[in-house]
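Input record (one chain):
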Amino acid sequence: MPRKTKSAGLLELNLLGSFRLARNGQLVQLPTRKAESLLAYLVLHPESHTREKLASLFWGDSSDLQARTSLRTALAVLHKQLGDESIFADHDSAQINLDCFAQVDALDFGHALDPQAAQSRHAELTNVEQAIQVYQGDLLADHYDEWILAERERYRSQYVDALLWLTQKMRERGEYPRAIEFAHQLLETDPANEPAHQHLMFCYLATGKRLEALKQYDECKRLLMEYLAIEPSPETIKLYSSIQRAENAPKAHEAVMTNLPSPVTSFIGREEELAELKHVFANTRLLTLTGAGGIGKTRLAKVLAFDLVNDYRDGVWFVEFVELKDAALVPRTVAKTLGVRETSDQPIDEALVNALTPRHVLLVLDNCEHLVEACARLCEQLLYACPNLKILVTSREILGIPGETIWRVPPLKFPETKARIDHAATLLQFDAVRLFNERAMAASPTFQVNDQNVAAIMQICQRLDGIPLALELAAARTRGLSVEQIANKLDDRFRLLTGGSRTALPRYQTLRALIDWSYELLSDHERALFRRLSVFVDGWTLEEAEAICGESYSLADTLDLLAHLVDKSLVLADTENRTLRYRFLETIRQYARDKLLSSDEATRVRNRHRDWFLRLGEDAEPHLRSSDQAQWLRRLEQEHENLKSALEWSLSREAVADDVEKGLRLAGALTQFWAMHGHMSDGRTWLERARACRSNLRRFGLGQG
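The corresponding structure, as predicted from the sequence alone:
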């Protein structure tokens, strides 16, 4: 994978393993380790660097003058050995010219692992295998500069992740010898990698090597204790138990009890949800886990299915639709997973029915939302014809067929907004915090939750709604930011929360791409209502949605569109109140708000929102002194955030006299409510601000008196 260069056959630099520099195949010797380290740093960080920064990084234990002199000498050495065009340098800065290099193994390794560089899954597989071949050892294994240690660990982690990914892919394809080869290669670098041991146990059993599978468990147990001082996980123990029960070494096709992927990261929390799901699934044949993108549907389905693997004589089969674009290929994709082949006299759906009718099987169909009609048709056909079949579905949109049980996956539990928590131990009782903590420690080994950062971590978990993927993306940012900085940047969360796993699909690598996927599956009318609904803060009713956002829609149309958004997991319906109320997760609302602000209807929708809640405030005012006072106080309290948003909109438009006057009217109408419901200081602030706005209008001659 050579890079494009201006001149062919120039420098070749190997950093993975020992340092090696060559020109046209001939070794180039640098006189000192420091020069080697400096060159490596400049190549791995090819942006411009100040001389002050480089001098401090490499000669920090010297005086400023001596450090700059040493840097100047080292740069001169590199110029001489590499050529005049190799480094762009002036009095203040230095930058490597990568065009002088025909090959840099570390950069080629990173490029091969970039999923966006692959045009297909086959190409991705080839690229990752090439990356593994490029990795000839740890980064600059015989260098010990402080900056190298973190870089070395990052490259090693990518190498381990890539080997684990290859092991999983080979296992899914039934190429067990190659899966075993990759797993052993992984364990040479990371002996206590439990998922690799799980893969080996499974693959040994699948190839009829039951004794080797049992020995692998013993080896796993020994290494986990030696390196980490822990026992094997429940998943590993359960796999070991199933191998023990296999009295005779089975043939490969008999051993495939499941193709469920082994997890790379730990599963946090959800104990109550798993217990409830097992009870629910015992009483239905079709269970759909639905919820917003990144909420954890796939991971929860995998854990549930793994726990049930021994309940299905003919196996648990995981079918991934995430990259499938053609709905017509849904039956073939399921058939390929099950090893069912189409014949000239039997269509694929009939072949599936015939294969599954006598078998006790659990099918897990993952990421169905973009193929929902095709998945619904197939599920209905298979369940009708195959009495011993159960299906577990994950989808942002429900299938909507008879017999479907819908289970909405909730966010991870996090502290309520008004909660007062001062101690780390208390905060770590919440699943969202535990997930953030574990992923942050993986990204930054020195990270820890302590009493000093409790407030910032609590804010992160609250503002990200307990969405697992969002929390993992935020945790990854601890490599370069403090939790306080992360919390402060969440107003721009879509720019902040990028940089997910290299091996994840692009739409799982950023928070915006995750929601883009759902938004692009909406109809034009659904998109219009979705972005308009972002005008609400802390929820809305159907009546409010129709009046404020249902422009050009009837009440029935608005209800239908709103129901579609609920079905597609973009809107939550709160059925606990006597009046059905809808709301966004805050992350979804911010995305919808960005869409509204980029449209030509933002001002019109904000005005309609303000006018509606002005009428509510003025309608409520006389009732606050009547027998139905309690009812109106509850209503105003429920809509308090919307009322404040309406005030904010009016008073932020100081140059528009009509808006300011409406803001004054609303503030006046709410005065008694604020006094009666404990919002006096809040109300006083709004009234003072409204009067100040009116004074400004009069001063500039814009008011009406």
